[in-house]
Design a protein that fits this description.
mainly alpha, 3-stranded antiparallel beta sheet, globular, binds s-citryldethia Coenzyme A
Amino acid sequence: MDAGLEHVLAAETILSDVNGAEGRLIIRGRKVEDLAAEATHEDAAHLLWSGFFADLPPASALAQRIGAARAATPYQATDADPVTALRRGWALVPDTEGLDTAIALTAAAPVLIAAAARARMNLPPLAPDATLSSAADFLRMLHGRSATPAEIRALNAYLVTICDHGLNASTFAARVVASTRAGLASAAIAGISALKGPLHGGAPGPVLDMLDAIAEPSQAEAWIDAALTKGERLMGFGHRIYRVRDPRADALKAALAHLPSTAGRLAFAEAVEQTALQKLRARHPARSLDINVEFYTALLLEALGIPRTCFTTIFAWGRSLGWIAHAKEQIATGRLVRPQSVYVGPSPIARRA
Ligand code: SDX
C-alpha cells in the first residue's frame, strides 16, 4: 500500500516536470519563471494543448476563439458561491473530448466567477467583451472599470504560473475521469471538486485569514507557535513534492512587485514567512517544509482586488488548461485508471446449515 500514492508513477507526460529536490518546474520545455514573466493565459492554452487537438489553430486564432466563447457564455446573477457557480456553468458545457468543449470550459470561467463575485457584492453581472484578453476582461467584469497594464500582467503571471503542475490531486482526478471517456467537462468538474479542498487549492484564502489573525510582525511568533502546538497546518507551507522552496512563490512575488500599494503588505508577509519557516524547521527537522505557491498567490490576488472567496475558482480557471491537456493525454496514451485494493474487512460468515 502506498498512502497517497506518494511513490507511484501513474503516467508518462510531456506536459510538466515538477522537480521537488531542486525546486524546478518545467512546462512543455519552458521554465515556469520565464513563462510567468512573458506569457498570457491564452499563450499557455496554446502551449499546453499543442499536439492534443488536431484542429488547434495558431495561437492568435485560439485567443480570438476563447474571446468569442467568453462572450457566448450564458451567465446570470447567482446567489451561489463561486465554486458552485463554476461547477454549475461547466455542467452546461457539451461534454465532448473536442476543442470546442475545451475552449468553452476555460472561456466560461472568468464570466462565471465575475458574476458570482459581483452577486455577493449586490452588483449585477457585466457582459463579457470579446475584444479584450481574458485577464483584462475578467478584471473589467469584476471591478466595472478597465484594468491597468500592470494588473493584467500580474493576473496573467498568476494564471500561467499555476496552469499545470504534474499529477497533483486535481489533475489526477481529471485524468481518472477522462480515462473512462466521460468527456472534458466531466474531467474539469472532477478537477475543481478536488481542488477546493484546503489541503490543495483551497489554501490561499486561509493564508489571508492567517495574516489577518497575526495582524503585525511582532505577533507572528506567538501566533504561529500556538497554531503549531494545536497541530494546525500553516496554509501556504509544505508540499508533497517540493523539499525546497516552490519556484512559483518567487515568480508570483516578482509579479506582485509591479503592483502599486503592496510594499507594506509584502514586507509584513515576508516577516511572517521567515518566522513560519524557522518554526516549521524547528518542529520538523527531518521534513523540510518550505513555502508553497499559495502564500504569495494570496497576496497577489488580494492586490488585484479579487475577493478571497474567489481564490479557488481563479486557481481552477488557470489550472483548467492543465486539466484539459492531461485529460487529452490520458485519452491518447493511457488506459482506464483502475488500481487494486487489499480487503481487510470481515471474513464471510458461514451460512447456517
Ligand atoms: C497545492 O501537489 C501539488 O502539486 C499541489 C499544488 C498544485 O500546484 O497543484 O502545488 C497546489 O495544493 C499546494 C499546497 C497547498 N496547501 C497548503 O498550503 C495547506 C498546508 N499544507 C499542508 O497541509 C501539507 O503540507 C500538504 C497537504 C500540502 C502536503 O502534505 P503531505 O505531503 O501529505 O505531508 P504530511 O501531511 O505527511 O506532513 C508531514 C509532516 C506532518 O507532521 P506529522 O503529522 O507527521 O507530525 O509535516 C507536517 C505534518 O503535520 N506538515 C505541516 C505542514 N505541512 C506538513 N505542519 C504545519 N504546517 C504545514 N503546512
